[in-house]
């Protein structure tokens, strides 16, 4: 079998799909994208296609090595996301070639259903109560929200109180049998994180995510010791090597994105590295159906998997959503907040190709908001 053609599709709200075709008629789908930078990733995929066309699609590991390392310069969000989406498509083809789901090729299932959490925003504290109630009524056992909006580097007492008020409200609605996770989103300075974490501990978040920006990783050992809250991070890390220092610092949950960190192949290795440190895998995934389906394949076969992010109802996807691009929504139907394992071959997702092609004709130019502090300086989003 040989790869004959690669096509990319820019699909709202902010995604990019790749379709890999073979001379035996098998087709694989991937989602090579980094949010807000879809066009450069598309260009990177086109460059990698020069190498892939004519190759045997089943030699995934060798292609991963060449695509990742063969250009001498390596790493970073653009290249790693291009490789990630192509890796997903190659696993999709391999599964379809053998008539088995990818998780069976990775060693078989260790679980039959995957717990997922739902987003409840958090930029507007007043909306938290209704949002959390809505998701628990929909059956979710866990939600995630932002810990704050724009935050000054040394937070005022009012900013601290606003963060605590969100969390208190969420815990009140959830009761003690459900979980919430709090995303600091890199908006919180190391000093603010040291102040907030001990105050949040009594509300027992499942984890606090991106307690500081990736470039402030040197602060992680202090933050791990600042409270008993498990710390999570990883959506802005792109390879197993980048996870080593945070794990050594005591991070409890790793959150690589299957469309940013080298795909299924690298996510498996990041999970294995985390297992050495007793840490759990909770993949980042505010993306589309291929990225979610690929994440689920890893979850089904990874012992130290914790919980899956997914984009349904996420507050910043306005023009389109995950189910717009699938011919069969069944694999994405939630059962009491869980997604069920199936024996569908490949990634187990049935892409609506006509919908994807139509979406590409409209395209998108999604960019994240640029926030500013009251004095005009840049603020983290
Ligand atoms: Mg996050």
What's the total helix number?
Answer: 12
Please give the largest β-sheet. 7 strands, parallel
According to CATH, what is the class of the largest domain? Alpha Beta
Q: Let me know the CATH homologous superfamily of the largest domain.
A: Enolase-like C-terminal domain
Low-confidence stretches: none
* N to C succession of SSEs: EEEHHHHEEHEHEHEHEHEHEHEHEE
Strand numbers in spatial order across the main sheet? 5-6-7-8-9-10-11
Radius of gyration: 20 Å
Report the sheet-strand fraction: 5-15%
Share of helical residues: 25-40%
Helix-strand makeup class = alpha/beta
Per CATH, which architecture of the largest domain? Alpha-Beta Barrel
Ligands in the model, by name, code or SMILES, are: magnesium ion
Total tally of structural domains = 2
Instruction: Kindly report the CATH topology of the largest domain.
Output: TIM Barrel
Distance between the termini: 45 Å
EC number: 4.2.1.6
GO molecular function: galactonate dehydratase activity
InterPro entries: DgoD-like (IPR034593), Enolase-like_C_sf (IPR036849), Enolase-like_N (IPR029017), Enolase_C-like (IPR029065), Mandel_Rmase/mucon_lact_enz_CS (IPR018110), Mandelate_racemase_C (IPR013342), Mandelate_racemase_N_dom (IPR013341)
Pfam family, one: MR_MLE_N
């Amino acid at each position: 079998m040989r790869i004959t053609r690669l096509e990319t599709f820019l699909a709202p709200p902010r995604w990019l799909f790749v379709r890999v075709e073979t001379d035996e008629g098998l087709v694989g789908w991937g989602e090579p994208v980094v949010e807000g930078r879809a066009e450069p990733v598309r260009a990177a995929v086109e460059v990698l296609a020069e190498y892939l066309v004519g190759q045997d699609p089943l030699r995934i590991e060798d292609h991963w090595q060449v695509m990742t390392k063969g250009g001498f310069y390596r790493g970073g969000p653009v290249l790693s996301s291009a490789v990630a989406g192509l890796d997903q498509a190659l696993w999709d083809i391999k599964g379809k070639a053998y008539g088995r789901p990818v998780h069976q090729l990775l060693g078989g299932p260790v679980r039959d259903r995957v717990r997922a959490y739902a987003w409840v925003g958090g930029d507007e504290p007043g909306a938290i109560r209704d949002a959390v109630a809505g998701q628990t009524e929909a059956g979710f056992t866990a939600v995630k929200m932002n810990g704050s909006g724009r935050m000054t580097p040394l937070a005022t007492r009012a900013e601290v109180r606003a963060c605590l008020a969100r969390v208190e409200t969420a815990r009140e609605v959830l009761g003690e049998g459900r979980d919430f996770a709090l995303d600091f989103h890199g908006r919180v300075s190391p000093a603010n994180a040291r102040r907030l974490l001990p105050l949040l501990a009594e509300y027992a978040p499942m984890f606090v995510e991106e307690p500081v920006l990736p470039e402030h990783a040197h602060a992680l050992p202090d933050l791990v010791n600042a409270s008993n809250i498990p710390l999570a991070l990883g959506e802005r890390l792109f390879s197993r090597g980048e996870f080593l220092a945070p794990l050594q610092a005591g991070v409890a949950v790793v959150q690589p994105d299957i469309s940013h960190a080298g795909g299924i192949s690298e996510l498996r290795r990041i999970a294995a590295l985390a297992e050495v440190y007793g840490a759990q895998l909770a993949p980042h995934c505010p993306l589309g159906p291929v990225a979610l389906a690929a994440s689920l394949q890893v979850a089904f076969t990874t012992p130290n998997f914790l919980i899956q992010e997914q984009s349904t109802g996420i507050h910043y996807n306005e023009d389109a959503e995950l189910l717009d691009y699938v011919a069969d929504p069944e694999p994405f139907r939630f059962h009491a907040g869980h997604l069920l394992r199936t024996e569908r071959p490949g990634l187990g997702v049935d892409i609506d190709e006509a919908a994807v092609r139509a979406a590409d004709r409209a395209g998108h130019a999604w960019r994240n908001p640029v926030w500013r502090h009251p004095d005009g300086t840049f603020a983290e989003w």
